[in-house]
Amino acid sequence: MNENATSPMVDNGSSEDVPASNSCSKDESYKYVFLPVCYTYTCILSLALNSIILCSILKRRKEWNCSLIYMFNLALTDFMYGLSLPFLIASYIMHDVWVFGDFTCRLVRFLFYFNLYCSIFFLTCISFHRYLGICHPMKTITMETKKTARVVCVLVWLVVLALTCPIFHFAKTATFNNATNCWDDALDTEYPHYVPYGIILHSVGFFLPFSIIAWCYSRVIKTIFKTISNQEFKSAVPGLEKRRKSIKTIVTITLLFALCFLPFHVTKTIFLVNKAVPDVACATKRVVTICYKVTRPLASFNAWLNALLYFLTKDKWPQNCLKPKKNADDSKSSWNIFKPFNHLTPPS
């Protein structure tokens, strides 16, 4: 195994995994503390928050709308990812030793990427739905039905499954230094095939959806501020300051998601390019590897940060959680992810 392997678990390699003859060794002992702490934090919050969301939404199935359908699927994939983290945490604590078998290794690695891109795709659906609701409200009535949302969710699951299923081939267990390890990306012999796949995965799974989200929100923000600058409309809208605060909150959370996804995909892409380019300086390899491994748990934070989107766009959460609404119309509106914007569409 050469140095390009970095480690049996690409995101958690260590200097002891590198042959002594290799001059470009790396001290990665930090990961045995940093990564377990990050993933433990993510595991607890992901399981707790998403279980609350799933139970709460399931109790109100008759009140489902397009937004809730997307949020339910988003919470479901985040919950599934949280269930896989204890295996990864245990492996880090045991210094990369994997004792859970080859299939579990492949499943855990698969679930990381499956969750990551399901989250990105469902956030894209929510963003586009929000864009239609604010910029083209009449189209929302005809295009955005519950049946359409269900079909879109099924398509998202199938597309992401197709994008990430090669992970089951590349991720595997291997023996190194008399210990079984779980490889994250690919063995050295398979990297010529993995690098192009990884770049395509990042382009289709992140950079394309991220561009769509950025475009949608640029149009949403433009429409909102154009509307609230209308003095006649401005005077007719009650609680306008509260809606402005809601806008700031949603934009802030959206940027927070971008900060989770963007650093990981940029550093991972550079990491893959470094693998493909020969004679990369040792210092460069060290910096890129460290950045990649630090941003990987940052990307996993989306498993619980996504829950904030639900809580922040739901009105009067504590009351709704504890007891049902008496008024059916109020109940429906309280679950509407567009409630902060209901009155922001200018009159025709």
UniProtKB/TrEMBL annotation:
Its main location: membrane. The chain crosses the membrane at residues 39-58, 70-90, 110-128, 149-171, 194-217, 249-266. Keywords: Disulfide bond, G-protein coupled receptor, Membrane, Receptor, Transducer, Transmembrane, Transmembrane helix. It is a multi-pass membrane protein. One of its GO terms (molecular function) is oxysterol binding. It is found in: Membrane. GO terms for cellular component: membrane. It comes from the Eukaryota. Pfam families: 7tm_1. Residues 1-24 are annotated as: Disordered. InterPro entries: GP183-like, GPCR_Rhodpsn, GPCR_Rhodpsn_7TM. The keyword Zinc does not apply. Residues 49-310 form the G-protein coupled receptors family 1 profile domain. Belongs to the G-protein coupled receptor 1 family. PANTHER family: G-PROTEIN COUPLED RECEPTOR (PTHR24237), P2Y PURINOCEPTOR 3-LIKE (PTHR24237:SF36). This is G-protein coupled receptors family 1 profile domain-containing protein. The lineage of its organism: Eukaryota, Metazoa, Chordata, Craniata, Vertebrata.
